[in-house]
Amino acid sequence: MALRFLRKKGVSETEAKLLVSRINLMEKLAPGFEVYHFYANGVYGTWVAQGKSKISPQELQKAEREKIEGERDTAVAQGEKLQEEVNDLVTEKQRITEEIEGLRSERTSLLEERSKLEANNTAQLSKLNSLHYVVGNRDKLKADGIIEIPVFAKDRAGKNWKNDVFTQSLDLRSADSITLKASELNLKKIGKINVVPGSYTKDVHYSLTISEDKQSATIKLIEKSRFTNDKVVFAISE
After folding, report:
1. What are the extents of the domains in the chain?
2. Which pLDDT tens digit goes with each residue over 48-82?
3. Does the pTM exceed 0.70?
4. What are phi and psi of 127, to 5 degrees?
5. In Å, what is the CA distance from 146 to each residue of 32, 105, 114, 133, 207?
6. Contact, 182 vs 190, CB < 8 A?
7. What are the DSSP E strand ranges found in the chain?
8. What is the pLDDT of residues 112-159, one digit of tens each?
């Protein structure tokens, strides 16, 4: 309206825009308002009167200001609410992250425990399916109390016949023979091998072959089930 008025007064568009930029215009008008313009000696002015409107320009501006402030307050409240929701989501995310880490840690612990159980199970199965034995010089085994050598009977278990003595084992699921070497036993030769306990019978439960040079011997388990998870001493004499 202001530009149209000035253009009718013969003011160029550029000058009209400049003049309008120097005054305060109401951005919104209500039906019935009366708008007045004047232009004289290069000076432009305008004002708005209530006219036939039910609301005055000041009341309209106040209402618009209150509306804007209300929208601003609503936006601020919504922003605060959204921020609270964001904070709640961050807290929930942190809780879930901690829960996931806890589950991962628990899973790792369970996997480790399972591995230990599997290893223990494997060890137990191996133990239950193995022959546990000791190989040594007959006289030393007697001196250590692992075996006894009666005068008129077979060699038998001594007072120190204990589980921790039998450190060697043969898994009978995959093997059925033991090879002994004189050099590994600090012996010059293998002359005789006594199997303790004496309940094991040669050529029935086991076979024994000593090499011609007496440097090695092979013990083959014929009846493996008899030796399963049992303890045996192979006492060697030169």
Report:
1. 2-55, 65-128, 130-237
2. 999 999 999 899 889 888 888 899 999 999 999 99
3. no
4. -65, -45
5. 124, 48, 38, 12, 23
6. yes
7. 34-40, 43-49, 130-137, 147-148, 156-157, 168-171, 177-181, 192-196, 206-210, 216-221, 231-237
8. 999 888 888 888 888 889 999 999 999 999 999 999 999 888 999 999
